[in-house]
Design brief:
The complex is a heterodimer of chains A (186) and B (101). Chain A is mainly α and 186 residues long. Chain A has a domain at 139-186. Chain A is 74% helix and 0% strand. Chain A is globular, with a radius of gyration of 22 Å. Chain B has one domain: Helix Hairpins, CATH 1.10.287.3510. Chain B contains four helices and no strands. In chain B, α1 runs antiparallel to α2 (29-53) and α2 runs antiparallel to α3. Classes of the chains: A mainly alpha (186), B mainly alpha (101). Chains A and B meet through α1, α2, α3, α4 and α5 of A and α1, α2 and α3 of B.
Chain lengths: 186, 101
């Protein structure tokens, strides 16, 4: 049963992410990315990491994709970026080599059975309970640092995005690039 | 047929490769952000699967912090992206490259 679910989710994730990086239309790729995040949370639920699955749903496919959707309102999403592609061989070699390195890095200690559990999960409690116990005892300082980092990122995002908010973006765009303006007039 | 840890790690490696190919291939800055998200998610799958298979919670902790880092990266990155779009009027990396050596 787990195998069926794993293969369904795995094929769907790979397919959706391929759509994400191959699609010409940026709206398609954003939707495919959001759907892929939902499928990944399904994978987390299979693995028994219930809390992370919920966090993945809320943060990734909720907050981050909504942020991208709002950000895309600032850009002209309908205008396609003309892309010039270099050699496919370089892409193939680099991606293949890095994937091989990834597999070796992760699989070598797992095959050798040399991984020792660092933080044993408490027996007899469900996953969110166990995560809460570990998060607020052993990982308290990183948790606080992550909170401060999120605050800094929020302030930075507000300051960066709200500069010259009163100017219309389309006017800025026309003024910034005279060549395209001529093209549009023709 | 049982699903082992290797299955999950292979899936994670495939997803990481997809993200890396996206970073190398695409020239749109927003697509680069999407591909980065894919790579972060691949790392998350690896962390959570290892954590689940060796019954250790620190992998899930790291995945949680990766999600927090991804959220703040998107907030700052989108702000910078909007500034770049305001300044140059495009998100094409070929047009944005000003240093030629």
């Amino acid at each position: 049963m787990e195998a069926i679910a794993f293969y369904i989710f795995g094929v769907l994730i790979v397919g959706l992410f391929l759509v994400t990086i191959l699609s010409r239309d940026i709206l398609y790729s954003m939707s495919a990315l959001a759907a892929g995040m939902v499928m990944i949370s399904g994978l987390f639920f299979i693995l028994g990491a219930d809390f992370l699955g919920a966090v993945q749903l809320v943060v990734y496919s909720g907050a981050i994709m909504a942020l991208y959707a709002f950000g895309m309102m600032f850009f002209d999403a309908t205008r396609e970026v003309k892309e010039k592609h270099g050699s496919g061989l370089l892409v193939f070699i680099l991606s293949g080599a890095s994937a091989l390195i990834m597999v070796i890095i992760f699989a070598a200690p797992a095959i050798g059975n040399k991984i020792e559990p660092l933080v044993q999960a408490t027996k007899g409690v469900d996953n969110p309970h166990a995560i809460g116990e570990v998060l607020f005892t052993k990982y308290l300082i990183p948790f606080e640092v992550a909170a401060v980092m999120l605050l800094v990122a929020m302030i930075a995002g507000i300051i960066l995005a709200s500069k010259k908010m009163d100017e219309s973006l389309s006017e800025v765009y026309v003024g910034a690039d005279p060549e395209t303006e001529k093209k549009e007039q023709v | 047929m049982t699903i082992t840890l290797t299955h999950y790690l292979v899936l994670s490696a495939i997803l990481f490769t997809i993200g890396l190919a996206g970073v190398i291939r695409r020239k749109n800055l927003l697509m680069l952000f999407f591909a980065t998200e894919i790579m972060l998610n691949a790392a998350n799958i690896a962390f959570v699967s290892i954590s689940s298979f060796i019954n250790d919670l620190s992998g899930q902790m790291f995945a949680l912090f990766i999600i927090a880092i991804a959220a703040s990266e998107v907030a700052v990155g989108l702000g910078l992206l909007i500034l770049i779009y305001k300044k140059y009027g495009t998100l094409d990396l070929d047009k944005l490259s000003t240093m030629r050596g």
